[in-house]
Amino acid sequence: MAKTPDDPRLDLLQGTLDMLILRTLQWGPEHGHGIGQAIRTQSDDLLRVETGSLYPALHRLVKRGWLNAEWGVSEANQRAKYYRLTAAGKAQLLREQDRWSRLVHAIGRIMNPARADSGK
Amino acid sequence: MRPDERDLDEEIRGHLAINIKERIDRGEDPASARRAALMEFGYMPAVRDEMRRVWYSRWYDHVAALARDIRFAVRSLARAKALTVTVVVTLALGIGANAAIFSVVRSVLLRPLVNREADRLIYIRQGALGLAIQNLTFSVPEINDFKSRATTIAAFGDFSTVSFTLIGFGREPRLVRAGVVNGSFFEVMGLRPILGRLLGPADDGPGASGAAVLTHRFWKDVLNSDPTVIGQTIRLGSTPATVVGVLEPSVPYPTETEIMSNMVTSPHHLGATMNTDRKHRMTDLFGRLAPGATVDAARAELSGLHASMLQEHPDAYSPQARIRLQVRTLQEQIASPARTILLVLMAAAAVVFIIACSNVANLILARSVRREAELAVRAALGAGRGALRRTLLAESLVLCAAGAGVGLFLAGPLVRVAGSYAARFSIRALESTVDAGVLWLGAGLALMAAVLLAYIPRLPSSDRSSGLGLTGGGVRITRGTNRRLRIFATTQIACAFVLLAAAGMLVTTLTALQTANTGYDLRHVLAIDLPDRLGPGLRDTSRGTVLQEVARRIGELPGVEGVAMGESVPWRDRSTTKLQFIAEGYQPANGEESPTGRLRYVSPQYFAVLGVPLLAGRDFTDHDRTSGEHVAIVNQSVAQRLFPNGDALNRRLTPTNLGTNLGSPETSRIVGIVADVDDDNVVQEPSMIVYYPLGHGGSRLFVRASEDPRMLIPSVSRTIREISADQAVERPATLEDIRTEVLAPERLNAFVFSALGGIALLIAVVGVAGVLAFSVSARTREFGVRLAVGSTPQDLRAGVLRDGVRTAAIGIAAGAAGGYVLARIAGGFFDYVQLPGALPLIVAAIVLIGAAIGASLVPAARASRVDVLQALRSE
Q1: Which CATH number do you get for residue A55?
Q2: Mean model confidence pLDDT for chain B
Q3: What percent of chain B has pLDDT over 70?
């Protein structure tokens, strides 16, 4: 689906998808579709994750040991693969969160020097 | 933990199902919900590939695709049975022949010996270039010189080849090939016993008791691996010996032996002649390099020592004999005689492989032309060139794998045949087996062929001008494809021609050898070995008396026309003894060496029994042995070359002795002249032979029979045993049998090349027939048109036949040119490469042309039967 220039949806920043997935799974196991929906609703529909990015990302995180995957049955009685945060995944989430807030802070200072100073 | 293909599919299906359900729950109708979910998902195979790629590398995709293609190829080949069978059989022949020959080459040339640190085990050889003697072996004084002076050699091993009459193990007396070895021999060779012990330093010297070690082959084949033989006492000739051990399986060198024993078992080895006569050479010498020494260092040092030996003892080394030392590893020494023949065989097998590949290439090319429509459809549907190539590759992989499988199955029996063939040149060939290395070679060859074959056919391109397209159902043959088909057919003919010409040459040689006039009466002479481990100069009179009685009794048997004795059977016992002599009344030209000839000891009647005519003078008589006058008989070559005036009789010959272990004859008067015969070569070469009267009985008995001499074998053996129960009676055969036996290597060469040539011919015929059949079926329309405008079926038939003959003719010309170039190149490396005469070439050409005509007949018949209306309507 080609986006028109005035589409309000945002492109994900490089490398942030993994963090969002980890964050979403903080509340408990979820299947791929559920994760996508959660990101979408929590961002007020501004962030939409393409399945072509979501599923490879999920598999990548499983491979790195940050997620566990197991088959389960959804509320709609449909077999689906559920992803769960591992201990290593939790630690990684903390690291990413920390990195992210420092990044936001640093970029904020550059883009908005006055506000940043006043915040101090 | 790794998700498989099904896992990925199921996850995607689950995702879609949940999405659709949510949408339906929100109130969308099922059909549009489904559509929307699919739209939202995106291109499913791409997502799945992305997911898979997290876990598997990019190779996986290609392999998975290839696997799909292979399954497809198997199905589609199963429908083309004739093609599949032809291709598989052709490849199997090519791969099987190569695998078999490779395995022999490897076991002979490449595989290491079992000997410990075989690269430090050297063989020392003394050759006399001037006498054309490759291996003179060594005398004990020579070996002692080396032992006392050499520093690069840690220890020397002595081995002298002898024959013993073995009495023991509860069997009949039997002549065994044996080696008398010194105490350090087995240590130097680096061999271990599998039972008991080997001989050591304690077994050396005259005071030790007799001890013998059995070789593994003898123990296994003759004694049925009986472990109780250890400790048994046997008799070797007259000396008792205890069996102390069995040697591990190893390459027998210098000869295949059955027993190895210590010095005391051979009284001759303890005698003065053996130990003091520098010219009494009968020992092979091995050495183990000292720590830190290299083969080159040892060669330099030993050659230096040898040179000073030559200076210190000029009497033992005639300058004309040009005695030289050679030092190399045992491995090299063993492999070298077989190297050339094996390389030639490998080249021949490679040629067969080329023929097989080009034939298969033809068949595949023809098939791919038939498939062009299918490939064009797939290309139009979006299959890339890679995918199309992969389809072809899958098919050729399946074919080649099947071919390799059958080929390796064939390799087993082929290896046995090739192994026993090559064993004539190197004993190690018998170790050849099919194993992992050969399997890898087969797989490699098959893979090579498969890749080659996949890249031969042209792919349909999107370019419309190529004329390939979706239109038109019939087979179209493009000029390029046609040319390739013809090139391959021509290649096959060319290669087949080279092999056939080589085979023809070998067969011609063999026929010439078999029909050459030898000068002997082949049919009526029986030759029998009466082995005796002592040379003629060392026998005592008792044996002479016994043998005289033997000869007298055999002479009285019915059907016997004459009995004689000698020391060597023509062709079988090739004697290296050379006699150099001066002849009374013959002055060698300035710088010319004294005449050299062969020395033979024969009994009276020898010439009559063997059918060699006496040209002048008289035969030996019993009186010659006792009269005190030394007499000789010479052959025609001596008489004509040295006495051109025809006055050879009663002249005197004086030997100027060379290094021999025979007592040197005295100056003798020529009493007779006999016709030329050549007992070294089956085809006579002019050579001078001097015959002396045999002393006390010989070791070879000749019986002349009126009927088939083989009928006499039982009665003759019985007679000998009655007189001397301990006398071994060996290898009775007619001279004709012996010639056949001696020619076995030539016959095998001819056989192997004929077999390879036959395979090549067969494959080439299939190839030519295939190309023509294909070209006929592709030209159906053209033939129809030509018939319609007035050609007769005969014209068409003749055209196809001409086509076949032309292909063959071009192939023959190419083969002749290529073969000539190859022979010239090979001639640069080997001395004895020769070009075949005209006859084999013409025969090979006629055979090929005939085969091409035969192969063209069926397609030609089909061309002449083309139905005009059908042909014109078909497109």
Answers
A1: 1.10.10.10
A2: 81
A3: 88
Counting the structural domains of chain A, the total is 1
User: With an 8 Å Cβ cutoff, is A81 touching chain B?
Assistant: yes
Q: Where are the alpha helices (DSSP H) in B150-287?
A: 185-189, 216-221, 267-270, 272-276
CA distance B404 to chain A (A): 40
In a domain, A85, yes or no: yes
Highest mean pLDDT among B39-53, B203-217, B342-356, B485-499: B203-217
Q: Domain-by-domain residue ranges, chain B?
A: 5-56, 118-335, 497-518+735-875, 525-734
The Cα B546–Cα B552 span in angstroms is 10
Determine which of B255-264, B696-705, B772-781 has the lowest per-residue pLDDT on average: B772-781
Query: Running along chain A, 120 residues long, what does each successive block of 10 average in pLDDT?
Result: 55 79 92 91 88 90 92 83 93 93 91 62
B437-459 tens-digit pLDDT? 777 777 787 788 788 777 776 66
Could you tell me if residue A10 is inside a domain?
Answer: no
DSSP one-letter string for B331-387 = HHHHHHHHHHHHHHHHHHHHHHHHHHHHHHHHHHHHHHHHTHHHHHHHHHTT--HHH
Q: What is the pLDDT of residue B447?
A: 82
Domain for residue A3, yes or no?
Answer: no
Residues of chain A with C-beta less than 8 angstroms from the C-beta of B7: 81
| Cα of B370 to nearest chain A Cα, Å | 41
Q: Which residues of B touch A (CB under 8 A)?
A: 3, 7, 10-12, 14-15, 17-19, 21-22, 39-43, 46-47, 50-51, 53-55
B535 pLDDT above the threshold of 60? no
How many pairs of residues across A and B have Cβ atoms under 8 Å apart?
61
Q: Could you give the C-alpha distances from B821 to B756, B790, B817, B826, B827, in angstroms and in order?
A: 21, 47, 6, 9, 10
Whether residues A56 and B51 touch (CB distance < 8 A) is answered with: yes
The verdict on A60 touching B (C-beta cutoff 8 Å) is yes
Give the mutation candidate from A31, A59, A86 for the B interface (greatest B CB count, under 10 A). Answer: A59
- Token readout for B839 is 């006859």
A2 close to B (CB below 8 A): no
- Bridge partners (DSSP) of residue B253 are none
CA angle, B841 then B842 then B846, to 5°? 120
Task: Choose the closest CB to A51 out of B7, B10, B42.
Answer: B42
- Return the residue in B24, B51, B55 with the most chain A beta carbons within 10 A, the one to mutate for interface testing: B51
Inter-residue contact B530 to B603 (CB < 8 Å):
no
- What predicted TM-score, i.e. pTM, was given to this entire model? 0.61
**pLDDT tens for each residue of B682-732:** 777 778 888 988 876 678 899 999 888 888 888 888 888 888 777 778 788
Short-list B796, B759, B760, B761, CA closest to B775: B796
A 27-56 residues inside an 8 A Cβ radius of B: 31-34, 50-52, 55-56
**Which residues of B are less than 8 Å from A32 in CB distance?**
11, 14-15
- Tell me how far apart the terminal alpha carbons of chain A are, to the nearest angstrom: 44
Whether B50 and A56 lie within 8 Å, measured CB to CB: yes
Pairwise CB contact (< 8 Å): B11 & A76: no
Phi/psi class of residue B329: alpha, beta or left (left: φ > 0; alpha: ψ in -120 to 50)? beta
Residue A30: give the domain boundaries. Answer: 16-119
Nearest Cα residue in chain A from B53: A56
Residue A4 in any domain: the answer is no
Chain centre distance of CA B763: 23
pLDDT of B658 over the 60 cut:
no
Chain B residue numbers touching A50 (CB-CB < 8 A): 42
More confident residue, B238 or B523: B523
Whether residue B670 is predicted with pLDDT greater than 50 in this model: the reply is yes
Q: Which tens digit of pLDDT belongs to each residue from B794-839?
A: 888 888 888 888 888 998 898 888 888 877 776 665 555 566 677 7
